[in-house]
Specification:
Layout (H helix, E strand, L loop, with lengths): L1 E5 L8 E5 L13 E2 L3 H10 L2 E5 L8 H32 L17 H27 L6 H17 L1 H7 L8 H19 L4 H12 L10 H4 L7 H8 L1 H12 L4 H9 L20 H15 L11 H11 L6 H11 L7 E4 L4 E6 L9 E6 L5 E9 L13 E4 L9 H5 L3
Antiparallel strand pairs: 1-4, 2-3, 2-4, 5-6, 5-9, 6-7, 7-8
């Protein structure tokens, strides 16, 4: 039995089974450990807001303590989450993005319904290219850089036309093919973010290539470690952490990799306060591409099911990243990332003001509270008899009132897999 506990309420002897973030984003060597003293609790507090404690492995467990901890934590969490939601809405609506004078914002060149057709082809070609490239690396061959560059170039053009199509396809998840699909998903998210920041085509190509290759060194990590469902030993963690060194070696043998792309590979595990790895760099020393690589890497990691943890919703991930913005990342870049993804990111499971339930399929970049939603359940929570997509910019309920999103539902609510409703285009 695992219980969610505020890190401020942890006691020595409690067994920390899961964190509120991937283990590899922290300095803890073991995936699961018994808390020994106040110093370890304070270290956890620097990195996590809450953890999951295994009751059966915790010698200090008492039912009375956990009942109280659950209640007090739940009440405080609700208040803090409401405040974070308010701040995020303020970022998206009341603090407009400011671009440098030489930066011109992109304008969508194609509707989602048109671009999704081309995006499916691009995403499939990119998957095939990454499968081939990673297989070559595993066999000791060179990474096929031109193949990766062609794939990124096509993704860049699709994202420029309309980023929602590839973002929609980035929801494809397969825990058994995590490394390859994670690289593609993070590259797509990085390109959408770069477009939002009005980066040039050349800059987008360099950023996209770096993020696509950021975990290429994982091809040298033993599969037994990559797929291990339980905690890593300190030796296993040390091997996993070498993926950055190995990735840079692979890039060197490939030749011709732009410096900005190398920055992503080298720095995507560095953190603002210097508690990242491998070089413990602090924010001023981390390149912009490295900062972006870190943000998209964490975002995709925490919203994906892994062998050792379940996914957060997109909304929860953005809330956590907002909390981590000062100590882990660059706060202004995190706030821009939140503006880019929106309050209701694509793939969010939402409930509307009339009680119906749906999945966000596109973002309205002018009015972030008014995305398009694929309706899944009626107000009585029964399935719709046919596929219905509603544009909240124009939609009304049965009484002529404005139809709007009232809340984001937790992942898995009503046994709905958002991807089932995104891939039908």
């Amino acid at each position: 039995m695992k219980v969610k506990v505020d890190v401020r309420e942890l006691q020595a002897g409690m067994y920390v089974a899961e964190l509120d973030r991937p283990w590899l984003e922290t300095p803890f060597l073991f995936q699961g450990f018994e808390l020994r003293n106040e110093d370890e609790r304070k270290m956890l507090e620097r990195h996590c807001r809450y953890v999951y404690v295994d009751v059966h492995k915790s010698p200090t467990f008492t039912p009375k303590y956990f009942d109280g901890a659950r209640m007090s934590f739940s009440q405080r969490l609700a208040r803090e989450d409401d405040e974070i939601r308010r701040k995020i809405r303020e970022i998206v609506h009341d603090k407009p993005q400011v671009l440098a004078p030489h930066r011109k914002p992109y304008i969508d060149e194609a509707p989602f319904e048109q671009e999704i057709v081309e995006a499916k082809v691009v995403e499939k070609e990119t998957r095939d290219a990454m499968d081939e490239a990673l297989e070559n690396v595993q066999k000791g061959k060179r990474f096929d850089l031109p193949l990766a560059q062609r794939a990124v170039g096509k993704m860049v053009e699709s994202v420029i036309r309309n980023p929602d199509a590839l973002i929609c396809l980035s929801q494809l998840k397969d825990v058994n093919k995590y490394t390859a699909l994670h690289s593609i998903r993070t590259s797509i998210i990085a390109l959408a973010f770069g477009r939002h920041m009005a980066l040039s085509r050349d800059e987008l190509n360099i950023l996209g290539l770096g993020v696509l290759m950021h975990d290429v060194g994982m091809a040298r990590v033993p599969k037994a470690i990559l797929d291990k469902p339980s905690g890593l030993s300190s030796d296993e963690f040390a091997i996993m952490a070498k993926h950055i060194k190995w990735g840079l070696e692979i890039l060197e043998t490939s030749g011709g990799v732009p410096a900005g792309a190398q920055d992503v590979v080298r720095q995507h595990h560095e953190r603002g306060e210097g508690h990242g790895y491998p070089n413990h760099l602090k924010a001023p020393a981390i390149a912009p591409a490295g900062l972006i690589g870190a943000i998209v890497d964490v975002y995709d990691a925490v919203t994906s099911d892994r062998h050792y943890g379940v996914a957060m919703s997109a909304e929860d991930a953005l809330k956590r990243m907002y909390e981590w913005r000062h100590k882990d990342f660059s706060a202004p870049i995190v706030e821009d990332f939140i503006r880019c993804m929106g309050i209701f990111p694509i793939g969010s499971l939402v409930e509307l003001s009339n009680g119906s339930v749906g999945v966000v399929i596109t973002i309205n970049r002018a009015r972030r509270l008014k995305p398009k939603v694929a309706l899944v359940l009626t107000a009585t929570k029964t399935p719709y008899s046919q596929r219905i997509v509603t544009d909240l910019l124009e939609a009304k309920d049965a009484y002529g009132n404005e139809l709007k999103i009232t809340r984001v539902l937790p992942s898995g609510s009503y046994d709905i897999n958002p991807m089932d409703h995104l891939v039908q285009f």
